[in-house]
Amino acid sequence: MLQRLICALLGIMFCSAGLAGMRQSPEPELRTLLQQTVTKADSFQDRFDAEVWLLDMSTRMRRYIPNAEERLSLLRLVHREASKAGLRPDLVIALIHAESHFDRFAISSVGAQGMMQVMPFWKAELGRPQDNLTDNATNLRYGCTILSFYLRKENGDLNRALARYNGSLGKHTYSAKVVGFWHDLWYVNP
Questions:
Q1: What keywords were assigned to this record (predicted)?
Q2: Which residues fall within 8 angstroms of residue 147, CB to CB, at 6 or more apart?
């Protein structure tokens, strides 16, 4: 039953001949990679949820990260770290989109590093100077923890939490940008 549902989903997403750039069927390498990624995805409720979410988000993210293996690895990390922090993974992806445009080596004018643009002073605060903020797993752990903290501090007010995360509390430009990316590109109905 699960196999048929996945095949149907793959068929819907990849077999529309009228869509530009889409193939008649998914590439075998992508299918294999997706299966391997699902096996390693330990933050999902069940395998079906993992397959559907990873395939959906991978398809959306393809224009930003062309390499399928890199994309699926990032998505698995985002889902794991966001789930640990009590955040929606699609919101975290929107924040990454706004902060770094998916560039793990991004450095801001004030020195914030990595995909989630974490300030390096946090390493000293935690007594972990060896941490590498351009490592996606490390960056996501820091960034998701920080955002989760600000959401609690702001009693769930996403706009204020995002402004705190960005250091722009009292302004709405940054939070509007993240929420816009979330709703327009990354939002997934629960």
A1: Signal
A2: 85, 87, 92, 95, 116, 161, 162, 165
Cα distances (angstroms) measured from residue 64 to each of 61, 123, 178: 5, 28, 16
The domain locations on the chain are 1-74, 86-190
Q: Convert the pLDDT of each residue in 54-103 to its tens digit.
A: 899 999 999 999 999 999 999 999 999 999 999 999 999 999 999 999 99
- CA-to-CA dists, residue 8 to 17, 34, 39, 52, 187, angstroms: 15, 15, 20, 11, 22
Pick among 3.30.830.10, 1.20.58.1190, 1.10.530.10, 3.90.76.10: CATH of 86-190: 1.10.530.10
70 phi/psi in degrees, rounded to 5: -65, -40
For residue 13, pLDDT over 50 is answered with no
- Residue 136, Cα to own-chain centre: how many angstroms? 11
